[in-house]
Amino acid sequence: MSTHSIWSHYRADKAYDEMIDAGGKPRETCANLSQYLQSLGTEAIKGRLSAAEAAILEMGITFTVYSEKGNIDRAWPFDIIPRLIDFQEWMSIEAGLKQRLKALNCFINDVYNEQAIIKDGLVPADLIESSGNFRPECIGIQPKYGAWANICGSDLVRAGDGVVYVLEDNLRVPSGVSYMIENRVITKRIFPELLHNLNIMPVDDYPAQLFEMLTSLAADPVSQPQIAVLTPGIYNSAYFEHAFLAQQMGATLVEGGDLLVKNDDCVYMRTIKGLEKVDVIYRRIDDLFLDPEVFNSDSILGVKGLIRAWKAGNVALANAPGAGVADDKVVYAYVPAMIRYYLNEEPILPNVPTYLCSDPEQCAYVLEHLEELVVKPANESGGYGMLVGPHATGKEIKQFHKLIKKNPRNYIAQPTLALSTCPTLCNDKLEPRHIDLRPFILQGENGFVTAGGLTRVALKAGSLVVNSSQGGGSKDTWIINREQ
């Protein structure tokens, strides 16, 4: 097979393609990459792919898939063709992400305190009260800097019009940042000459930025607070990430049984030297399992008394319990209004148009157009429990009709977007596959956004589902500054 044949059958679908324009020519930002890929023969491409697969195995990069047959650890699915974004466009996206998280944190703090946005009629009270992630136990708390969601992973998509939209915000325990970093490590191994010749913004500063943000949350202004990463354990699907980030930050990876809350309402870590006070906990456990004294009394994953210690101001929790109230996909529809209300600014990044099934008129429209829409449950993640109307069977349409009628509050609907595509290596040739992007945003004393993020790719032809748990993979994301 010749070098040319790798590209010869590549045709961008009707969707916007990140590398090739409508005329079939490389976009300006991608010109050097396109030219380089064309210079490689098939055997060279195969060699780079084999090198990437070997690196993934050597580095132990895995994720866990839950199934009826048990938990399966799989090697991380990685496509070697990167996704490129121009630096100037990225600067606007970064500003929009910071703006969005700032408004979301204002909203969460308001919900658990003054509830001004509810009193002023912008957000219905019953929307909050019926949210599966609203925690009455958190009322009256005001975390440091008013930051409840310290780590956010917002999912971005580019539609056929070329516009970047926010698809959803992940504010509870967003995952995937370790894979973003490891993707770059692999790319450096297989394309060292490319990264040397192009001005690509780094992503390996994230652990340092995360550590700095977590340090800023400590109640006492100590120079080296004790930071712990609280994990559910080795069987969690994101355990690789928990261990990776703890190691990269120099923090301690702990499970619930490693921590103890004493009568002084402080959290201590059991060590071979005795008990050591913990100042900040980066928790990767869902709210309801954090503290059996307050939430699920049967939980063996959390720490008894942890919420008491948090309320006393003796330990910082990131993300704060209750932050998930803004993770609700129904609440998502109100984010543009939040930005105007709290910040007195116009949103930089638009939402995807969203129909609320809790509104009778909007619900009627959704029920009549299920075949055209994407329907999502309010609090599911990972692409589960959703309906992609154009790809659904008649039986699935009828099922969702019943589900929405039974519990309209639990569903939203959105137009089926033609997600942008990116060249992806499929059986020795490049084919377009749909992608999204999850950048990671930090907020403590200061804000920070990763230079790019985790580009997720639907490896199945025509599929819009990019989640790794459902057959998706990922790509390295390059922010290219062509002016330097």
From TrEMBL:
InterPro entries: ATP-dep_Glu-Cys_Ligase-2 (IPR051680), CP_ATPgrasp_2 (IPR025841), UCP005522 (IPR016450). Residues 82-458 form the Circularly permuted ATP-grasp type domain. This is Circularly permuted type 2 ATP-grasp protein.
